[in-house]
Amino acid sequence: MKRIVVITTGGAIGARRGPMVGGAMPALKGEDFLAVLPRSGVDLVFEEFANLPGSHFTAVSSLDLAHRVEAILSSPDIDGAVIIHGPDTLEETAYLLDLTVSSPKPVVFTGAIRSSASVGYDGVVNLASAIRLAMAPEAQDLGVVTLFGDEFHAASELQQVDSQSLNAFASPGSGPLGRVEGERIVVRHRPGGRQHIACQRLEEMVDLIRVTQGADVRQLRHSIEDGVAGVVIESFGGGRLPPWWLPQITDAMQRRTVVVITTRCMSGGLGDEFGYVGAFHDLRRLGVLFAQQLSGPKARIKLMVALGTARNTSELRGWFAA
Predict the structure, then answer these.
(1) CATH number at residue 244
(2) Checking DSSP bridges between strand 2-8 and strand 184-187, what pairing results, if any?
(3) Tens digits of residue pLDDT in 79-116
(4) Residue 250 lies in a domain
(5) Using CA atoms, how far apart are residues 44 and 148, in angstroms rounded to an integer?
(6) Does one domain contain both 46 and 176?
(7) 224 with 282, same domain?
């Protein structure tokens, strides 16, 4: 019989309305879920890590969770882990665990878009499917995945693309890794190019800035003056910035502020053929780091982990070379 640990952190899946507040609040516990889940062929162990909405989670909380998951999966008696998490920051927490947890055992994130007080509550079916996936041999060595609506996605590719729909998560450009179809697990493709960073602490002082049409450099200048360790910039297209941003980026790097470039587009890599000022060739010449195939929030998580772990500049650059 498979033994799966279900770690609860809060979120909409465990929220219900109470008499003292105007909306749903995290309230359901492990025993509440256990009472409504099918348990054939599986020994479920529930552990409460936190009871917070996803919007209250921090990167430090996520790293503490990663260490706990690594410890749990080190036991030979445990076959996998399911993590219940609020949707607001789920993609960031899941990606941090994908970077830092080394176990080949299945780690599946899930949750709910709607609270248990809603007619369209999706929590129990998501949790049941996530447990089924965590039990499956096919889920070994997939890395951390997230399951909603019977589709599961690689943590490195996942993005929340809708604020209300039950199909709120997708993997733009690559699609889901597979589906849970009743008792059957269908894996369509496996993620490639995974990285592992053995992280004991992370650097919290990392900012994320999105470039918009005509945007000036106030946000970047303030970040530098505040002494942040790193800045992630969501650029246009394949890595392009307004020309007036280049002197400020140069100043940032002279002050040893690490600058990482990603794209504000939902999919696609960095690189172009253009020769005008501010195009990809200028950014490469300046020596910035590039976060290929990562959203801005994930690039920020990766930089926080990398800055907290890297022993030198060469090691830091190596993690962003792929």
Answers:
(1) 3.40.50.40
(2) unpaired
(3) 999 999 999 999 999 999 999 999 999 999 999 988 77
(4) yes
(5) 20
(6) yes
(7) yes
